[in-house]
Amino acid sequence: MYTPAPYLAAVNVHVKHSGTQNKVETLFSKTKGFVHQRWVQELVRVGRRTEFGLIVEGIWGYAGHATTYLDDFVFQKCTSDHHVSSCASSEWMCADRDKCVAVYERCDGKRDCTDGSDEMQCLSEYGDCNFDMEDWTTACNWTVDTVDGKPSWTRAKESHSEDTGPPSSHQGRPGTFFLVANSSWLPEGSPAVARSPVFPASHNKCHLRFWYYMKGSLSMDYLRVQTDSSGASLPMWQDVGNRGARWLYGHAVVGHSEPFNVVFEAHRGGDALTDIAIDDVSFTSSCSEGGDAVQPTGHPSLCTEEEFLCKDKSMCVPRDFVCDCQADCPDGSDETDCGAVCVTTASPGPGKPSGRAVSTPSSVSLTTTFPCPKGFVSCMDGEHC
Question: SMART domains given for it (predicted)?
Fold first, then answer.
């Protein structure tokens, strides 16, 4: 640190604790009046911490010529001296033995190990697709439904408009592609449907990982993942609305009691600024094995925090599907203990999910006239969800 003039009020170093928004602790402080007309080394002891970040703060004094120079930040002995000795059967040990990560986080395009070893030496699994090859449907063994004679999902390097869709693929490298439901020509409410190859029947065993992009106008509709077997579809995951200008990570445990396809279904919103894109779709190796997952005693459910475990434990459904007046669990447990009674079903517009009216426990009847996406109910004005 070099401070040639005595006008700086203070230099502080704070530590911000991981997982907290406002918890900041001051570790070092030099108050007003100090002068260093040469470079001086300062030592800040961080102590034992979990994950943390440092904030260096300079506060001006009473004059405008307060300048302090900082250089050569060095962190010593800040790596963890703790190493895990073993991981659960549903986990994978990082190469540096710093921690265990979930098996489904291995080779999912997202760095979870500190050393990045979970994304090294990755092999392509059955059903994986990054859409970079021109004949990707043949290479990945996927199919796409058509709308008005055109493929409903198309391969692209960038969006048709800077106001919607991604400017590049998830990888961001030249020559890489993504799959997009292009709102510039898809009719409103029309679903864009892409299907994976067929997987054997499984339960709580097959993990789907993917990246998706939902930037656009306020009329952005939804992206849904479901499993389909001989026309019988089960919802697995869903996101709705404008999610901003960034690629988002998606994960779902998918399965069906019969051999199944994984289906990506995107619905065009109310204007041509509602593109929905997906990229880097991958499956765990257990997807091609089929069968039931072996749950170690005491190990938590494979349902994520955003999912609801059906009471018969046959599947996970998105929490948005709970108490939406349509049973998605085979045993109907997602529609029990809801504190409301479903009384009518409105007729939706073409391609739209059914809007459903509910009555409150006090038996005040609400009539639904506005079709809403799944997971939403119509407001009393009949014009909003």
Answer: LDLa, MAM
Q: Quick one: average pLDDT of 31-35?
A: 61
> Across residues 66-71, what is the average pLDDT?
77
DSSP codes joined into one string, 229-289: ETTEEEEEEEEES---SS-EEEEEEEEESS-BEEEEEEE--SSS---EEEEEEEE-GGGGT
Structure tokens, 245: 């200008």
Alpha carbons 294 and 56: distance in angstroms, whole number: 49
Provide the pairing of β-strand 261-267 with 154-156.
unpaired
Contacts with 326 (C-beta within 8 Å, 6 or more apart), sequence order: 335, 354, 356, 374
> What's the rounded Cα separation, in Å, for the pair 153 and 181?
5
> Are both 309 and 216 inside the same structural domain?
no
The SS3 of residue 58 is strand
Phi, psi dihedral angles at 122 (to 5 degrees): -90, 135
Q: Show the domain range for 313.
A: 299-331
Contact (CB, 8 A) for 102 and 90: yes
Instruction: For residues 142 and 281, state if they share a domain.
Output: yes
Shared domain for 96 and 206, answered yes or no, is: no
Contact 127, 262 (CB under 8 A): yes
pLDDT tens column, 339-360: 656 654 333 344 433 322 222 2
Residues 230 and 258 reside in one and the same domain: yes
Note the pLDDT of residue 341: 60
**Do both 25 and 151 map to the same domain?**
no
Q: What are phi and psi of 76, to 5 degrees?
A: -120, 135
Please, where are the H alpha helices in the chain?
Answer: 136-140
How many residues are recorded in the chain? 385
